[in-house]
Design brief:
The structure holds two protein chains of two kinds.
Chain A lengths: L7 E7 L5 H9 L16 E6 L5 E6 L11 H11 L10 E7 L3 H12 L5 E6 L1 H6 L2 E3 L1 H7 L5 E3 L8 H14 L10 H18 L5 H9 L4 H6 L3 H17 L7 H14 L3 E3 L6 H9 L4 H39 L7 H19 L2 H17 L1 H15 L7 H6 L4 H6 L7 H10 L9 H16 L1 H30 L19 H20 L1 H14 L4 H10 L5 H14 L2 H13 L6 H9 L6 H14 L8 H7 L15 H13 L4 H11 L2 H29 L1
Parallel strand pairs in A: 1-3, 1-4, 4-5, 5-7
Antiparallel strand pairs in A: 2-3, 6-8
Helix pairs in contact in A: 3-11, 7-8, 7-10, 13-14, 13-15, 13-21, 14-23, 14-28, 15-22, 19-21, 20-21, 20-29, 20-30, 21-30, 22-23, 23-28, 24-25, 25-28, 26-27, 27-28, 30-32, 31-32
Chain B lengths: L2 H29 L18
């Protein structure tokens, strides 16, 4: 990527869900994650934007916010970026304010506040197509004149319309350095602001801008005072007397800023927007059905059942093709290595068996993210928040917890980062603690393997999706009481009302949905080719060595009349049992015996602590090595279906009974088995205390609940 | 030691070394305030002190 020649920095700012990231992608050609709900961007992202005249600038995409009175960490990022308080960054040379064309008054409030910073501004009226559809006509020339001559352009970033105009407008703003017309403060408020700025400058010895003075006077949040180093004792008296002055002029000091700005904006917008005939209220009509008190949850459950059912049904054939490809590779690779049994086992049983068992789930992952993309981009996911709100509010979670918990169903790491949108640090902590309970896509291959191998064949394909939905609910079922205890008893979080702007319904853009599918597929395949590949080799080595020749001789001597294939199978099984992995698994297995896990499952579970999906490849290797490379190649599913206890009171019974299968899935639904998630939790909570607590709590809970499931189901069946 | 054992030993050794190096690099990145998720999804922002 070429770097900006002039070294100019342009910031992209706006209310949440106005299409900033979509515009950023259109201007830079990058593929920053976008979504049809607020709070998708939680950190600063940058790219190079060509202004069309050969000039290049660095464009920074910032999280959405409603006002400059920062309350949450992601909002603070915007304030710091705009004021040049981010290490390694300077103040932006221009600010592009992305505004929702259908709601100019509310969106321009932020623009009016940004104007106070005195930077050149470009106003982009995005989603212009929707405004047109609603019959709104916007006089952009009049608006530009009223705002002091700043460039105002119409765009529909989602459709790629008006992008060239935005580029030209940025070039013009950078060249002309036109600031936006600022609000005129009533005399008393202006005097109070001057008092605050003078006192702060005198006490700290630093230059205090008018924008800083406004934040000091109007915000209860002390971040600006802290940044300036203006201590509580120094500022207390000044701020109290300045706020009294504001109060005496007839304004509530905490409400004065929006009142003055909105009065100014109403004047600015007079005659700018004219309403014609348009299609309005379509979203409202659909919402009446989807957000209905009783029908809403039923439809939500129906959508989820259909969603998982389709994942299984559509993936069936591509999965069979991949499995055939894996089997074929094994038959091609193994025979030429007959003279080298160790190398043959490494390639066929270890690498192909392990990585192949993992790769088989690629179609399901692709279809899973296709549906997630459609549900998110259509705007339905945000509606799901309202359906789940009663549950969330009961357990004391902040309404803003929805976005992190929702994205936790894809991956816990970005969802932990998105807890930064929550203002209250205690609510943020409680949300971060329960995010790992959400059933991430790494759990999906485990559920899918168990459902395809046992639930489907035993109870029919319809039950696969029922169990799948059930497993996704298990995490939620325990997240709710956990959050309740944390928020109400431990952290004592103050309840907050749920305020979420519902995005409008839109047709998902195939390019974005496919791109997201591609990204996740690439990550899945890359994981198979890197981490899973390396772990598979290690698991193979541990389940192959040591190979004492006397084991084979002893078995041959004990079974003189048995057929060669039978002896061979017994030898392979004995080798695996006396391998390092076998010895370790057998030593640890008593801990997992109450859950109905044999030593092979135990090994799989332990190997999965760094990453859940490793169990699939680990079982693939242990069952392959146990069979021997040249034995009739059984799929992992068949091998698991045929596995039986060889000793103890359960000898001769299937290892993967319904009770054990359910216990295993419940264990994976609740256990903390993801190294990067624990590390991110530590990073976001500022230490290892909560991360360690989460690991111990989730792992112990998983063991207890899985034991209960196994013991109850085994008795009932 | 035969040729086959050497090849297998090298492959297993590479796998162990590669994983160890990856985990050490991730730990170092976390220590420096980088992305803890090992996925590059976040640019950690540290306001000026």
């Amino acid at each position: 990527m070429s770097t900006p020649e002039a070294g100019l920095l342009v910031a992209l700012v706006g209310n949440p869900n106005t299409g900033k990231s979509t515009l950023f992608n259109a201007l830079t050609g990058l593929r920053q994650r976008v979504g049809n709900y607020p709070g998708v961007t939680v950190a600063r992202k940058s790219g190079t934007c060509d202004l069309g005249d050969g000039q290049k600038v660095e464009l920074v995409d910032l999280p959405g916010l409603y006002s400059l009175a920062a309350a949450s960490p992601d909002e603070q990022v915007v304030i710091d970026a705009l004021s040049g308080n981010i290490a390694g960054d300077r103040r932006p040379d221009a600010v592009v304010l992305v505004v929702d064309s259908t709601n100019l008054l509310r969106n321009l409030f932020l623009a009016s506040q940004v104007a106070e910073l005195g930077r050149p501004v470009v106003i982009v009226l995005n989603q212009a197509d929707v405004a047109k559809e609603q019959g709104l006509r916007i006089d952009i020339d009049l608006l530009s004149r009223r705002l002091g001559g700043v460039p105002v352009v119409l765009s529909s970033a989602w459709k790629g319309e008006g992008i060239l105009d935005v580029r030209r407008a940025i070039a013009s703003a950078v060249a002309k350095q036109t600031p936006m017309k600022r609000v005129v403060w009533p005399t008393n408020i202006a005097a109070a602001l001057t008092d605050v700025a003078t006192a702060a400058a005198t006490d700290t010895g630093k230059q205090v801008s008018e924008a800083d003075a406004q934040r000091l006077l109007f915000d209860t949040n002390p971040s600006t005072a802290d940044r300036l180093g203006w201590t509580v004792t120094q500022r207390d008296k000044t701020l109290r007397s300045a706020r009294d002055r504001v109060r005496n002029s007839g304004y509530n000091p905490m409400a004065a800023e929006p009142l003055v700005h909105y009065a100014h904006l109403r004047t600015v917008l007079e005659g700018v927007v004219t309403e014609g005939a348009g299609k309005a209220g379509r979203s409202a009509a659909v919402d009446r059905l989807l957000l209905h008190r009783f029908l809403g949850p039923v439809l939500f459950l129906g959508i989820m059942l259909g969603f998982f059912g389709s994942v299984f049904w559509l993936a069936k054939f591509p999965m069979a093709w991949i499995q055939s490809g894996v089997d074929w590779t094994k038959t091609v690779v193994a025979p030429p290595l007959d003279a080298y049994p160790m190398l043959q086992s490494l390639l066929a049983d270890g690498i192909i068996g392990g990585v192949g068992a993992f790769l088989v789930f690629l179609p399901q992952i692709l279809i899973l993210f296709l549906f997630i993309g459609i549900l998110e981009d259509s705007g339905y996911m945000a509606r799901a928040a309202f359906i789940m709100d009663r549950l969330f509010s009961w357990c004391g979670l902040n309404g803003k917890s929805f976005v992190p918990l929702l994205s936790g169903f894809a991956c816990a790491i970005p969802s932990l980062l998105s807890t930064r949108t929550i203002e209250d640090p205690k609510a943020r902590l409680a949300t971060a603690f329960v995010v790992p309970f959400m059933s991430c896509s790494a759990r999906f291959p485990v559920y899918a393997l168990m459902c395809a191998a046992f639930i489907g064949p035993l109870y029919g394909p319809g039950w696969e999706s029922v169990v799948m939905v059930g497993m996704h609910c298990v995490g939620l079922l325990f997240a709710v009481p956990t959050a309740f205890v944390l928020t109400r008893l431990v952290l004592k979080v103050k309840p907050q009302p749920f305020v979420l702007e519902l995005p409008r319904y839109q047709m998902p853009k195939p390019r974005d949905v496919l791109w997201r599918m591609w990204q996740n597929a690439a990550e899945f395949v890359s994981k198979a080719g890197t981490v899973i590949f390396a772990i598979t080799i290690i698991v193979w080595a541990l389940s192959y060595f040591p190979r004492d020749a006397s084991v084979a001789e002893r078995i041959k001597a004990a079974n003189p009349a048995a057929a060669e294939e039978v002896v061979k199978a017994k030898v392979q099984a004995a080798y695996v049992e006396q391998s390092y992995m076998g010895r370790f698994g057998k030593a640890v297995q008593p801990i997992f015996d109450p859950l109905g896990f044999d030593w092979k499952i135990t090994v799989g579970v332990l190997a999965s602590f760094p990453a859940r999906e490793v169990i699939v490849s680990t079982l693939g290797v242990t069952y392959s090595v146990g069979e021997g490379a040249k034995a009739d190649s059984q799929h992992l599913r068949q091998a698991m279906q045929n596995a039986k206890w060889s000793e103890g009171p359960r000898a001769g019974t299937p290892i993967f009974s319904l009770a054990a299968v359910l216990a295993l899935m419940v264990f994976f639904a609740l256990c903390s088995q993801c190294g990067p998630t624990i590390a991110t939790l530590a990073q976001e909570t500022g230490g290892w205390k909560w991360a360690a607590g989460s690991f111990v709590y989730m792992t112990a809970l998983a063991w207890i609940v899985a034991t209960l499931v196994y013991q109850v189901v085994i008795r009932l069946s | 030691m035969n040729f086959e054992a050497i090849i297998v030993g090298v492959i297993v050794g590479f796998a162990v070394a590669w994983l160890a190096r990856r985990w050490i690099a991730a730990a170092r990145r976390r220590k420096e305030g980088g992305c803890a998720g090992d996925c590059g999804c976040s640019t950690k922002l540290n306001p000026k002190k």
